[in-house]
Structure formats: structure tokens, C-alpha cells
Amino acid sequence: MAENPVRFGIIGCAGIAGKLARAISLAPNATLTAIGSRSMEKAQTFAAKHKLPESVKIYGSYDQVLDDPDVDALYIPLPTTLHLHWALLAANNKKHLLLEKPTALDVAELDQIIEACQSNGVQFMDGTMWLHNPRTARLKLLLSDSTTIGPINFVHSTSTGLQTDEFFESNIRVKPDLDALGALGDMGWYCIAASLWAKDYQLPATVTALPDFTRNAAGVILSCSASLQWDQPNQTHATIHCSFLSHTTMDLAICGSNGSVHLKDFIIPYKETSASFEFTSGAKFVDLHIGWNVTPEEVRVDCELPQEVVMVQELARLVQGIRDCGSSPSSKWPEISRKTQLVLDAVNKSIELGCKPVCL
Prior knowledge:
GO molecular function: nucleotide binding
Radius of gyration: 21 Å
Largest sheet: 10 strands, mixed
CATH class of the largest domain: Alpha Beta
Pfam families: GFO_IDH_MocA, GFO_IDH_MocA_C3
Family: Belongs to the Gfo/Idh/MocA family.
Protein name: Putative oxidoreductase
CATH topology of the largest domain: Dihydrodipicolinate Reductase, domain 2
Distance between the termini: 45 Å
Strand content: 15-25%
Helix content: 25-40%
Order of helices and strands: EHEHEHEHEHEHEHHHEEEEEEEEHHE
Shape: globular
Number of strands: 16
Low-confidence stretches: none
Mean pLDDT: 96
Structural class: alpha/beta
Organism: Senna tora
CATH architecture of the largest domain: 2-Layer Sandwich
Number of domains: 2
CATH superfamily of the largest domain: Dihydrodipicolinate Reductase, domain 2
């Protein structure tokens, strides 16, 4: 562990919090200092389940973690409806913030969170882990080479997973008072982020939901699709699909004029230790169209650390710069979150308008 590691606290003991507790313990420049739940019993159960060291402070309330002077940064995996309240408290308590996605119910809420972080000089980052995978950087390098892929014409992404009856009855992601954005917020966030990432975070001109969306009786989105359209500097079309009703997929396809790349596990790689994608360039049909002149090339990227550990490491690096060197918080990560939230809001608005186009 590095000298003077960034000390993390976690409020909320949801399932994803266990993954982040492990990530913090594996990050070379971070350490887990405190966890808090709504009751001491829940916090103790979480600590025992994940075999947290005795040095981790266990609190029976969120406020105690916020008030702990030994906590530098806070990870918040609470239901989306609670993000604004606790994120503002965290920022105002000078805690750097790792906020689970979706970041907020809408961009107006997120703007309040980002403003609070900026005014208090603390770093903001959302919990989109795949952006930190070394495969993602390798892909970006390939896409930036105009001779291999060329201008991007089409992006397609899916994030789906068939859920159980128990999920549809009791999970927070189908409760309008807890996670009102449903599958769009939980899974669609990844698809939107991937499309924006492919376009170097240029916002689309129009966003249009497709009429195949499904809601539960409470009005929460269980499945939806949308189309994103860019006009300049070159026309690009993206389609996204997210669903709690289909078999697990995490597909990403990016097609340009000269080549294409395909991933089938872009959100969570099949393995922690390596990740791959298929790259095809100069593909044509052979005579009589009985085959192709090339087969996809598999590009494999080794991963020294799991992507969630790299995410924690990056946030901790930024926090160390602020804390130890007087650096300013990076604007990169809040800008990425805000653009993702803007497009997500547009998809939601288009659904509410009967699938009419929404201009950005």
C-alpha cells in the first residue's frame, strides 16, 4: 500500500458495496476506513460477510461515516432517489465522492451535486467501471486511428439480464420511490455511456425512444430501446437496448467506414485478468458471396487489476493530488457523468412524449 493512502468510507450495504469494498482493499493507494448502514446489525453483517479487517470502523448510521474525520472519500451505492441528499451532505463535509450510477434522477439534481463538489473542492466520479478497464483505452487508441476504423457510422449496444420473480416483486430497481429510472437508469446508463464514449462525448443532435418499451404496474421502465443521431462532423447513428426481461447481454459494436470492433462483455469482462475484442478491417465478400476475405482478429488485453480496482485507484490518485499537492479537482469525470445523464433524460422524455424525437 502506498504511503498516505486515501481513506474510503461506504454508506449503504447493498450488494455492489461488497464489490467496492474488495476493490478498495486491492487498490494500492486506498484503504477502507469505515462503513455505515441504517442499523448496526446490518453493518456488522456486511463486515462479517466480506471479512473486513478489524481496523474498519462499523457505524449504525450514514451520518457517522460522514462525520468521521478519518474518511477522505465516500462511496455511495444508495438508491438513486437518495443520491441528491447524501451526495450534497458528503460534498459539504469535504468528502470526495464516488457515486453509483445512475448518478441522479435527472440532470438538474446532478448539477446540484456537481456544483457542491466544485464549491467544496472535492473530486466527483461516478461508478462506471468499464471505462477504467485497460481494454477500453486500447479500443480508444484503435478508434482514433482513421486508417483502421475510419469515421464512425454506427454504434450498437445492449445491456440486458433476465430477472427473477422475487426481483420484480421487491428489488429497489423496480420501485418508483427508490429507483424510478428502472432498467433505463440501471442498464441503459452503460449503453448511453458507450455511445458517447465512441463519439468522444459529443452529444447527439436528437434522441428518440423506440415504441418497444415496457413498464411495470408502478410505471417503472423494465425494458426500452432508443436511437441516437449525430449530424456533424459526420452522420452517426447509435441504437441502445436495455432490459430486465431478456437473457444476459453486454454487447458493443462500433462500425466505421474502414473497419469495425465488437465486444460481447463490454460492461463486465468474462475474466478479471484479461479482456478482448474482435477487430475487422477491409472486409469484403469473396467471389459468389460464399464467404469473407478476412476473419475477425481477436485483440486481447491483460489486466493487472480488476477494472473496479483501477477505478478506485484513479479516484484515489486524483484525491491525493488535491490533498497533498493542492491540485484542482478534475473536470473530466463530472463532465462525462453529466453528458450521460443528459442523454438518459432525453430517452426518458422521449418515452413520456410517445417516442417523439428530443433535441439536445
